[in-house]
Each structure stands twice: as C-alpha cells, then as structure tokens.
Design brief:
Elements lengths: L33 H4 L14 E6 L2 E6 H6 L5 H7 L15 E3 L3 H9 L10 H11 L5 H10 L10 H10 L172 H5 L1
Parallel strand pairs: 1-3
Antiparallel strand pairs: 1-2
Length: 347
C-alpha cells in the first residue's frame, strides 16, 4: 500500500542567530558568542493544544483543534506529525492552507468522537490498512474483529464450543476426525482429545495446555506457536508436524507400555520443551534449532540426523539416546546428567 502522507521538506526555521550576521557589538557592551548560539538547531515549539488547524481529508476540509489529533492516539503518526511545530512537517498544503491528509473519514470520525462509523460501501480491510499505516492502535482490534466477522462461515475457525459439541455427540467407539479442520486460536485447554485425528489440521496459536492428546494423530498438522504446556502426548503421531515456537513445557511423551511417540521430521525450531519427559521419543531428522530442552528426559530418544544447532540441552538426560549424525553446533550441554559417549553418535 502506497504511503498516503507527503513528507515534503518544511520551510527552514528562522529562529536563532545567523552565522553570517554582520552586526557589531557597541563599545563597552559585553560581546556575544554568535557561533555558540548557532551551533545547534533551535528547540521545537510545543503547540498550543487548542490551536485550530484545517485538514483536507479526501477533498473535504475539516477544521479541528490540535487536542483532537494529539490526545486520542498520542502514539500515532498523526499525533507525531502535529506534536511539535517545526519538528516534523505534517504534509503539503492546499491552496487554502489546509494540510493534505489522505485519510479515511472513518478514522477521522474515530479521532473526534471515539466511535467507528463508516459508510457501507467502504471495506473494513481498507480502513484497517489505513489504521495500521497511521498507527491508530485503539482502532485496529475493532477493525480486525469486523474483518473476521465478514469472513465466509466455511472459512471461520472452529471454537471450543464446536469441539465440545462434537465430543459429546460422538461415541467413544467411533473415531473422531478433525482432519484438515481450521482450529486456529481455539481455546481447547484441559479437554480430553484422545485418539482424535488432527492430520493436516490448523492448530496455530491454539491453547492446548493441560489437554489430553494421547494417541492423537498430529501428522503434518500446524501447531506453530501453540500452547501445549503440561499436555499429555503419549504415543502421539506427529510426523512432519509444524511446532515452531510452540510451548511444550512440562509435557509427557513417555508411554508406560513402551510405544514410542513419533515426531520424525517435526519442526520444533525455537520451541520450549523444558522439563518435558521425552524418553524414547522418535525425533529423527527433526529441526530443533534454538529450541529449549533444558532438564528434559531424553533417555533412549532417537535424535539421529536432528538439527540441534544452538539448542539448549543443559541438565538433560541423554543416556542411551541415538545421536548419530546430529548437528550439535553451538549447542549448550552444561550440567548433563550423564556424559555423552562417542558410541551414541556413531552407531
């Protein structure tokens, strides 16, 4: 989106002494250091809040006080433009001396009255982009919600109520499928989601803290930046799942029956798995760059070919783990519970 506000140069300030001044001190009077007074730029003048200014908004001229522009959104670009005279030139002026501001009237109305009002022919998406451009932070959440509400029903993510309704209506003997379903941002904490098929599902930024995900299929699901803190993940199938930036702190992957959780090829870049029980987990060729694996139980885990560059493994237990071909460049291995052996990396 092209920028809407012209940033043409302002006329130079005339305040201060000129370096080429030819004035001479009168005899007997104290001399003035002219060069010192002109060494720095003049201090910007703070405008009077009730000073009136004219704005040409999309061809229509509005007259308002500076307080309207400064007080509602003091951190916005508009406020910074008019906050200090001579500090930043607001924009070009029209023939009548009004500042030219290419701004939706809906934003102008919001600044004056604090309410979002716009004509039906305007697109909320367009107003949203304008609000982001001018930094009108208080208006952005309202517009984002309007955009979300106008999405087609089939594109909207399922909610906690939708998932609970499906759980109640489905027999325990029937496999429940959310394959390819959009659950982005859903609040699913503390729910019993055992044996559910989430293959290819979108679970980005989903809250699954303390949820029971035992025996779930998460193959190729998108769990980026999701919260799974304290979740149960026994025998989970997460082949090539995307868990970048996810919070898996304190999770339990170890199945007492000996069935391994399969996270082969998973993307755990930047994820937090601190204090998790990952004994026996298959993390072959997984991406664990910059991941936090402090104090993890990784006994007998398969990390062959895994990328552990800059990974924090301090305090972890890697006894009998398969580390063949793993990348440990710049990895932190302080305070390991058991020493690493070369046999773990060459078998």
């Amino acid at each position: 989106m092209s920028k809407k506000v012209s940033t043409s140069d302002c006329p130079p300030s005339t305040s201060g002494y000129s370096s080429s001044s030819s004035s001479k001190p009168t005899p007997g009077s104290p001399s003035k250091d002219v060069s010192a007074s002109s060494s720095g730029p003049p201090a910007p003048r703070v405008p009077t809040p009730y000073k009136w200014v004219s704005l040409n908004v999309g061809g229509k001229v509005f007259t308002t006080t500076l307080s309207t522009l400064l007080n509602k959104e003091p951190g916005s670009m508009l406020a910074r433009m008019f906050a200090q005279e001579d500090a930043m030139c607001p924009s070009d002026k029209d023939a009548e001396g009004a500042y030219l501001i290419d701004l939706f009237r809906a934003i102008w109305t919001y600044l004056r009255h604090g309410q979002l009002i716009f004509d039906g022919h305007l697109s909320p998406e367009g107003i949203l982009e304008e609000a982001k451009f001018f930094g009108i932070e208080g208006l952005i959440p309202q517009l984002e919600e309007l955009v979300r509400q106008q999405q087609p029903a089939e594109d909207l993510p399922l909610t906690r109520r939708d998932v609970i309704s499906a759980l109640i209506k489905t027999s325990q003997m029937t496999e429940l499928r959310f394959q390819g379903v959009n659950l982005a941002g859903a609040d699913l904490r503390k729910l019993d989601l055992r044996h559910i098929n989430f293959k290819y599902a979108c679970l980005t930024r989903c809250n699954l803290s303390l949820a029971n995900l035992n025996y779930c299929c998460l193959e190729r699901a998108d769990l980026s930046f999701a919260n799974l803190e304290g979740a149960q993940l026994l025998s989970v199938k997460g082949l090539c799942a995307n868990m970048e930036g996810a919070n898996l702190q304190g999770c339990n992957f170890e199945d007492p029956t000996g069935v391994r959780s399969n996270l082969e090829g998973v993307n755990l870049k930047g994820a937090c798995l601190e204090n998790s029980n990952m004994a026996g987990v298959n993390l072959r060729v997984a991406n664990l760059r910059n991941a936090n694996l402090m104090n993890c139980n990784l006994r007998a885990a398969v990390l062959a070919g895994a990328d552990l560059e800059r990974c924090n493994l301090s305090g972890s237990d890697l006894q009998e783990a398969n580390l063949r071909g793993a990348n440990f460049k710049d990895a932190q291995l302080e305070l390991m519970l058991t020493p690493l052996h070369m046999s773990q990396a060459i078998r």
